[in-house]
Amino acid sequence: MSLILYAHPFSSYCQKVLTALYENATAFEFRLLSPENPSAGAEFVSLWPIKRMPVLRDGEATLMEATVIIEHLDLSHRGAVRLLPEDRKQALRVRFLDRVFDNYIMTPMQRIVGDHLRPTDVRDPHGVGEARALLDTTYRWLETNLDGAGWACGDFSLADCAAGPSLFYADWVQPIGADCPKLRAYRGRLLKRPSFARAVEEARPFRPLFPPGAPDRD
Length: 218
Ligand SMILES: N[C@@H](CCC(=O)N[C@@H](CS)C(=O)NCC(=O)O)C(=O)O
Known about the structure:
Strand content: 5-15%
Shape: globular
Structural class: alpha+beta
Bound molecules: glutathione
């Protein structure tokens, strides 16, 4: 098997790539990054000293950054589900929405979660407040700019791979309000999509590790 994914099931960016792999039933070997598996951790660090998961090995090639990994899968391991439209103008919109989910949902969500991992004397309530405000602003932007009933941008795509885990965890730390019914419904559709649902199920045993405490839902 030529594809090896260094990842952890509970990681949001790893779920983004797992969703893409499951969409097309792409075969790969999962190398779990955890303290119980130090050899995988050593390989991972030698491949990517910046130490951000996931990392994909494809033969001799190493791919980092979830979006780039998904673009690589769409180029080199194409399946029935195209993760980027062939049309470059349509692809631009998909890439833009992928950036929105990464930069303005995933990043502030991670900032809130990460604050719980800090020693109490160096917590950053101001930064967490800014992150919450950014999430609320982005929720409202998505509410008016996403398609009402389908996926982020036409057919299921890279943008939906980014949306699934980012909205999943963001809603845990900063619930999507009743003023964003379309966005709440979209999150619900993502949770029912078999590829993302599988990633969520595989991560379920790790919920007790969620630093702010996982809610009893989803
Ligand atoms: N920009 C990276 C972000 C990846 C990332 O933040 N991964 C997290 C897990 S969700 C990580 O590796 N965290 C480990 C750490 O912060 O040390 C991507 O798109 O893949």
